[in-house]
Design a protein that fits this description.
Mean pLDDT: 89
Shape: globular
Order of helices and strands: HEEEHEEEHHHHEEEEHHHH
Strand content: 15-25%
CATH topology of the largest domain: Aminoglycoside 3'-phosphotransferase, Chain: A, domain 2
CATH architecture of the largest domain: Alpha-Beta Complex
Radius of gyration: 20 Å
Length: 312
């Protein structure tokens, strides 16, 4: 790996390489420091990912040029041996939001959530020439995933009302505003920068889609950490309470994710992951009263517009 890194032009005189662990991708990720003490993010993928990396670099560069808080692209290409491809980005200084969020006060969690929501809205507003994408392809994908769950041995008891809820409202999936989705927007992919601004990372799953689909990740990865952040992100994005059509759409995406997540965890094969996903599904079902409600308990009745205007 050391030799391969040296063949990437901006890193020919690197001084330090630190592996970055985490995530489910097969790609190799590193923090690399060069001889000028500049830090970079390096992702190494197989050769067949070369086109995807080019498209990702193109997207990130366009966002950077428009002033969004993303990394500056330093390079993208094939490694010297032609068996691997790489994406090289300038490092965004700061700490991932999921690492610092639990240490914040509830009011600061809410305010940083507002900033995150405003940043997501800014990202969506850069979407240009996004035609209403093919709803049928999204619905087919979601139904294929639901069927994989239904034919598995990880089905939970008494799930039929939830399944019926998804099937009844399946056509709402993809019916929200057509935008370019980040598709994995949550505190693990957000950087809290030194001046309390938000940076966005990890665009490798970005694609044209439904703006409302972005929010179900709050239910999966964030609500147990901070409901105040989740409410803040929703308020920041919509400028207050969301429109009525949001909640039905959001609840359908969430119901689907709650069930299919059990099958996904089974396929990834780790017992601790299966337990986490099972507990998460139970919590989501309780929050929505098994989807008799389209607005979760953690949001109902909350008017958390805080008088505090700045982060501590």
């Amino acid at each position: 790996m050391d030799k391969m890194v040296s063949t990437i032009p901006p890193l020919s005189h690197w001084q330090r390489i630190e592996p970055i662990k985490g995530g489910f991708t097969q790609d190799l990720k590193y923090k690399v420091t060069d001889h000028q003490q500049r830090d970079f993010f390096l992702r190494i993928s197989n050769k067949d990912k070369w086109f995807d990396l080019k498209e990702e670099a193109k997207l990130i560069d366009s966002l950077y040029q428009k002033g969004l808080p993303v990394a500056k692209v330093a390079g993208v290409g094939l490694c010297e041996d032609k068996t691997k491809s790489f994406l090289l980005l300038h490092w965004i200084e700061g700490i991932t939001l999921d690492a610092v969020l639990p240490t914040m006060s509830p009011s600061d969690q809410y305010l940083i959530g507002v900033k995150a929501g405003q940043t997501l809205k800014q990202f969506h507003e850069t979407s240009t020439n996004i035609d209403a994408f093919l709803h049928r392809s999204l619905i087919k994908k979601k139904m294929d995933e639901l069927n994989a769950y239904l034919t598995s041995d990880v089905r939970i008891k008494n799930d039929q009302p939830v399944v019926d809820f998804i099937l009844k409202h399946k056509n709402i999936m993809g019916a929200g505003p057509s935008v370019y989705e980040h598709s994995d927007f949550h505190p693990g992919n957000l950087i809290l920068k030194p001046k309390k601004e938000i940076g966005i990372i990890d665009f490798n799953g970005s694609h044209p889609g439904d703006a409302y689909e972005e929010f179900y990740k709050l239910e999966l990865f964030v609500i147990e950490m901070s409901k105040h952040y989740c409410i803040g992100q929703i308020h920041g994005y919509f400028g207050g309470d969301p429109p009525e059509d949001f909640w039905l759409s959001h609840s359908v995406y969430t119901a689907h994710a709650a069930l299919y997540g059990l099958k996904w965890a089974q396929d990834h094969g780790k017992d601790d992951l299966k337990t986490i996903e099972f507990n998460r599904t139970k919590r989501i079902l309780n929050d929505y009263d098994w989807f008799k409600n389209t607005m979760p308990d953690w949001y109902i009745g909350v008017k958390h517009i805080n008088n505090k205007k700045t982060l501590s």
